[in-house]
Amino acid sequence: MHTSNKLSSRANALAVLRYQPYDQLPVVNFGYWTETLEKWAAEGHLPTDIAKAWGDGNDADVEIGRRLGFDFNWYSCFHVHSGLRPGFGRSVVRELPDGSKHVRNNDGVIELQAPGAGSIPAEIEHLLKDRASWEEHYKHRYAWHPDRVDQAKVRRSSGDWVPFAQGGSEFLRADKRDFHLGIFCGSLIGSIRNIVGVEGLSYLVGDDPDLFEEIVATNADLCYRGVEYALASGAKFDFAHFWEDICYKSGPLVSPKVFARVVGPHYRRITTLLAQHGIDIVSLDCDGKIDALLGTWLDNGVNTMFPIEVGTWRASIAPWRQQYGQRVRGVGGMDKVVFSHDHAAVDVEIERLKPLVALGGFIPCPDHRIAPDANWDTVRYYCERMHQVFG
């Protein structure tokens, strides 16, 4: 559905997700692994300083996207601090003869870190086990304070960064920015899973449901108050975004019934607030097979799935659209593994995406960070072809 008036890529993205006329499908990404940028810099495609400076939505991100042909990184957000404050900091608890270490991370979890390992570290022990450890070590770290918003940095169009309370909120109130920007609403259960572990979360739900619900409510209220404070300033955002990562290749890591009953209402509270401030696109980042949780998100105001990890389960927006209609939108669903192949593989993937784009309300995006096996030239070719095919 195209319009004769030239829209910005930012405006085009919102038009697509609102099922409105647009003139070109934005070509968007979800950032890169650090190792990917290091490889590309070593190959001469990027200056080393830009590769090292990269972060979602920052100036280096904009420059890398420009060189490849992306319009923007969808995951460009103003981040309210909704995590543990203060965090535990990182400290070595034990050093092993083979060079590996037991390290307490910022969430209080002891992890096994092996030399040269690049994957997610194994979890050895969790500090949060019961109500006593919750009361002693964690509950106070969820306390609300305006500094969680006021000290957060805002990137202005000039490229400089200023704290929200020192010019950042005024810049966003005036809506002077010319770039895509969302407000990050936190994590209602994924961050809790990070603290107690998958097994610990399962036991917590069964052994002490009252404590589980208290932890969820305390965390969710902190997320709500941060968003409320930021929006009360008059700041304007293009969309809102949650992070969860509570699914794996076969389904959710939490009971869908418990999730709907306990967590669902907290999404509704936040998305109702967002709607009162004119924010009608609410995306959520959850990897894995999310089908069993999708209805709860849609019923509670989260309407845009991201990054629709294709995986071995071959996720696609098509069956969700058949089940839920235009209630569900999507950003993602592009199988990034083709970046390690040739141009012909890219062409095949774009052909697969065509009927999905035709459904409306869907913007293709690599289905996670672009991995180190990606070829610079193949990614550039993808961006070029996407602009040609969907321009």
Describe this structure in words.
This protein has 391 residues and is of the alpha/beta class. The chain is built from 14 helices and 17 strands. It has helices spanning 9-17, 34-42, 48-53, 59-68, 131-138, 147-150, 168-173, 190-207, 209-232, 256-276, 291-299, 317-324, 343-358, 376-390; strands at residues 28-29, 72-73, 77-79, 91-95, 101-104, 109-113, 122-126, 153-155, 161-163, 182-184, 239-243, 247-248, 251-252, 282-285, 304-306, 329-334, 362-366. A seven-stranded parallel beta sheet has the order 3-10-11-14-15-16-17, sandwiched between helices. A hairpin with an 8-residue loop joins strand 6 and strand 7 (122-126). The longest helix is centred in the middle third of the chain and has 24 residues, at 209-232. The radius of gyration is 21 Å and the shape is globular. It starts with 8 loop residues before the first helix and ends with a helix. 38% of the residues are buried.
Quick description:
With 391 residues, this protein is α/β, with parallel strands linked by helices. A hairpin with a 5-residue loop joins β8 and β9.
Low-confidence stretches: none
Sheet with the most strands: spatial strand order:
3-10-11-14-15-16-17
- How many beta-strand segments? 17
Helix content: 40-55%
Proportion of beta-strand residues = 15-25%
Q: Span between N and C termini? A: 11 Å
Backbone CA Rg = 21 Å
Shape: globular
Which structural class is indicated by helix and strand composition? alpha/beta
Q: Biggest sheet, in brief?
A: 7 strands, parallel
The count of helical stretches stands at: 14
* Mean pLDDT figure: 95
